[in-house]
Structures are given as C-alpha cells and as structure tokens.
Design a protein that fits this description.
Layout: E1 8-9, H1 10-13, E2 19-27, E3 33-35, E4 37-38, E5 52-56, E6 59-68, E7 75-79, E8 91-96, H2 98-117, E9 122-127, E10 131-137, H3 145-157, E11 162-167, H4 169-174, H5 177-181, E12 193-198, E13 206-209, E14 224-231, E15 236-243
Parallel strand pairs: 1-4
Antiparallel strand pairs: 2-3, 2-8, 3-7, 5-6, 5-8, 6-7, 9-10, 10-15, 11-12, 12-13, 14-15
Helix pairs in contact: 2-3
C-alpha cells in the first residue's frame, strides 16, 4: 500500500520474512539502492536499519544499513562497500541478516515491557542487537532493581501475544482513555496510527504507537537482565535492559 512513489514496506506486513524478490526502482545520489518493496527496516524510532544482502545475476552486494532517503522519503539500502549496484529495473533477491534483525525485534518488544514496569513518561530510546535503553522522565532512580527484573521476566514467561492495530486520529480523539493506556503520545498529522498491543484486546499489558518490528509473543524475547541505570539530568534516568543470550 502507501502513496504513489513510496517504497512498499514489506517488513510491516511480514515481520518474519527473511528473504524476498524485488525490483530495483532507483539509485540515490549517495549510492543507495531503492527497491519497489523493501524487506529491510529503515533506521527509525530507536531501531537500527536492517543489514543483509542483495543478489542478482550471480552477483552479491552486502548491505550495511537501511535509511529513509531524505529527499524522496523512500527506503534506501546502503551498500557496505563501493561496488557496482544492481541496475534500475533489475530483479534482485533481498536477504536479511536475520539473526541481527530478530534480536532487534526481541529488544524492541522488551523495551515496551520496560515501559510497563517503569510507569513513567518515556523521552527516548535506543535499540541494539544485544540490549536496549529507555530514557524516563523520573526524578529518582527506581529502588528495587531485582523486583523490576522479575516483573520483566514475568511478562516474558506469560508468552503474551504481540499484535498490531491501526486507528485513525479521529478514533483516538473519540477515545481519550486510550492515551492513558499508551505510554507514548502518538505522532499527529500523519493519518492512521499504528498501535502495538501486548496481551489481549480487553486487558492489554501494553498498548502504544510504534512503527518498529516486534516478536509475535513475549516468550520469544527470552530471559532479560536489567542493566545500569544512569542519571542523565535532573529529571531523566536512562535504564538499560539486556538480552540473556
């Protein structure tokens, strides 16, 4: 779907797809490759862009990261080294570095759980393949680390379903109680809002606007370890959470 001229966003519809065919739609002036339907997630919302490979005609191009092209808004795959790009119009196979992406998915869902066990406003976040962090608007460091870690791992052990929902801004306006459930205020003026729900619809563990990729169930995250808690200003605490393995 999406507007004319926009890259299709296959990563949204098929979070677990590891490879897919595509056609080269364009090259960016910087040497990036724009496909007609991107399996690769572009850097955004604290989640790094996907890496992987493009293959065509017995040739292979290693992709270091993926970004949204500043000029066109389309998704551009950034090659790891300066090499001949697949020509515009060429059919290619795009293949994700799946291990890295799946870790991003596990960490991203874990951060949503972190925002539940620490119920303070979130001011930022960052994801890597081994850990993630959220910045909270909170004056004092949380006291009981062991309790927080236990609560995180309890949500993991529930193996709760993670699903997505779309609502319009008008629906959101008509249901202000939704905003209380959501730990992050949704971006306005972009049309429909994508929500990520953890748990069942009647009584979700968490519900918040998010454009990232997530695991299908919390059990997939695996054991979590609470990392360091840093003071980043009078009202800001940075809290790290690490994947167990």
């Amino acid at each position: 779907g999406g507007a004319t001229g926009m890259t299709g966003e296959l990563f949204r519809e098929e979070t677990y797809l590891r490879d897919a065919p595509a056609r080269v739609a364009a090259h960016t002036p910087e040497g990036g490759v724009i496909l007609d339907n991107s399996l690769f997630y572009p850097t955004g919302g604290g989640q790094p862009g996907d890496s992987g490979w493009l293959t065509w005609d017995k040739q292979e191009l290693s992709i270091a990261t993926t970004v949204r092209d500043r000029d066109s808004g389309r998704i551009a795959l950034v090659p790891a080294e300066p090499r001949a790009l697949p020509p515009v119009g060429a059919y290619v196979t795009q293949e994700l570095d799946w291990d890295r992406r799946h870790k991003h998915m596990r960490v991203h869902t874990a951060l949503h759980l972190l925002s539940v066990v620490i119920p303070h406003p979130v001011t930022g976040g960052q994801i890597s393949a081994s850990h993630g962090r959220l910045d909270f608007n909170m004056p004092d460091a949380p006291q009981d680390r062991a309790e927080l870690e236990e609560a995180l791992n309890h949500f993991v052990s529930l193996d709760a379903r993670v699903s997505e929902d779309w609502i319009t801004e008008a629906e959101l306006d008509a249901a202000p109680e939704l905003v209380k459930t959501m730990s992050v205020a949704p971006p306005r003026g972009r049309g429909d809002i994508r929500l990520i729900r953890i748990g069942d619809a009647q009584d979700p563990i968490d519900l918040q606007p998010c454009g990232g990729t997530h695991v299908a169930r919390t059990g997939e995250i695996g054991a979590l370890r609470l990392g360091k808690i840093e003071k980043k200003g009078r009202l800001n605490r940075r809290v790290y959470v690490h994947l167990g393995g």
